[in-house]
Amino acid sequence: MGGLTVAAVFYYPSPVGRLGIAEDEGMIEQIFFADIEDRRKQGYELKETPVIKQAAQELQEYFEGKRQVFEMPLNLKGTEFQKSVWRALIEIPYGQIQTYKDIAIKVGSPKGFRAVGLANNRNPIVIVVPCHRVVGSSGSLTGYGGGLPVKEYLIELEK
What we know:
About 30% of the residues lie in helices and about 15% in strands.
């Protein structure tokens, strides 16, 4: 094929349900709850690539309590605002939580906590971009793409 790469996706069991991991050109671009939403699109080949294997290994180590920082290469695809929110989420230390308002302030949009919530909702790389570490201003668990029980599980796992 002369160096052309085909975007790939592969699926793995996890303590929070089946996860899909998608990569393109050697970078992870999606990790998603496959039981809730199968994002396998045209152009994605069902294939376990080295980068997908690395991501799966890092996620397994995370679920076993052996990994707090992910090293897989990421390609965050979204608007500039969404990417700034997702980068801010990556900076939330393991085992800590922040509010939507904290993130809004961090990305320079102090009144933009609703926009931060929408960016969280569009997070294409769950767990690794830890939107589960963001809670409402009262500390209450709010919406999560994997469901609130999964959000609660991930927060407890990190304690």
